[in-house]
Here is the input.
Amino acid sequence: MNRRSRHLCRIAMACTASLAGALPAAAAEEFPNRPVRIIVGFPPGGATDLVARVIAPRLGDALKQQVVIDNRAGANGTIAAELASQATPDGYNLHLGTLGALVISPAITKVSYDPQRDLLPISLAVQLQNIFIVHPTVAAKSVGELITLARQKPGTLNYASSGLGSPGHLAGELLKSMAKIDMMHIAYKGGAPALGDLVSGQVPVFVAVISTGVPVVKNGRAVALAVTGAKRTPALPEVPTIAETAALKGYEASNWYGLMAPAGTPKPVVDRLHKDVVAVMNIPDLRDTLATRGVDATSSSPDEFAAYIRSETAKWGKVIRAANLKPN
Here is the structure.
């Protein structure tokens, strides 16, 4: 290559680099110019879907584009997380990530994605508790009575959760470990089908996300035994925490959801989404709507959310190893 050719090559490379550097900014300036979807890992009617449908219209207002919910239920949310990890990283494909799909399931079974490599945190969105509820015919009206019942019939009392490795599943396993009881776990494909079987009497106990459990407790179709967090919830202030049971001091198992994007989504687009998500999660009536179902609206920076996912991975990894949980 002669001197002139080398000079022209350098000019071409410089122009290419300049153009590449301008693309993210250009993408951010025109984003969004079409509908945005939020991939949800559970069916309509469950807690995750409820939160997504409360957030979506307000986020659509902020983005001035329609935000649609894409329910991809199954495998404790990992089907949706996998789809999100493989989606085009352009800001139009978001995922309402959950503790189960981002932390718990990858520690129990092999998944096709790396939650900390293939998905990009935007903001934490909500924090919420689980709740132990039973069918009204069950001869237990408190956690203490449930423990007694389980000891009388070891291995025969079933409890449902929204899926293998779900927060409800882990909350149940933590109760079994601390109370030294044996209950059989039944994994469903989401909270809605599990709730249907609970209220029909097909399963006696359901460790539900609190937003799923509150309505059926208030209308008398289920009995609340206890919430799993460190404090009682304003949505059901009369229901005690499991830790209030004398023999189970120190028990705590909480849950959370947050907005994610596929890795490689341009930073200016992530910054725009983060700004709007934070604004949405601070809308007073949205916060009130969620609070009536026992859900606490929150937000974070992308870096704070990433650090939180890492800390939760370490915490629940220890619980999973101690319980020796394996895929069914």
The chain has two domains: 34-127+255-323, 129-248. The longest helix spans residues 3-30. The domain at 34-127+255-323 is CATH 3.40.190.150 (D-Maltodextrin-Binding Protein; domain 2).
